[in-house]
Amino acid sequence: MSNTRLLIGASDYSPTLLNTLIDEPIAYLFQEGESSLYTRTGDEWVFTEILIPPQNESGQKFGNVLSTTDNAGVVAASGYNNNSGQITYYTY
After folding, report:
1. pLDDT, tens digit, 9 for 90 and up, residues 37-57
2. Is 51 exposed, middle or buried (0-12, 13-18, 19+ CB in 10 A)?
3. HSE-up (13 A, CA, CB side) for residue 35
4. Domain edges within the chain
């Protein structure tokens, strides 16, 4: 957390199914994990955006390690590529 940015990881989050308007299954999502970015506005933290993994891979645990500054953030996925891990750098 910086003074103006906050990242919250949800490394076990896993959406499982998208549905069409008539509720027929159309695709499975295998991403695991996401992170939420919040920005401080006055005395409040305001939701800014969801950061999702750059690759969809089951078990990657995207968001289990986080670091942020006022204009950049790092999100790790320790389970990516059979636990070899991956770090994604974001600027905002």
Report:
1. 999 999 999 999 988 888 878
2. buried
3. 28
4. 5-91
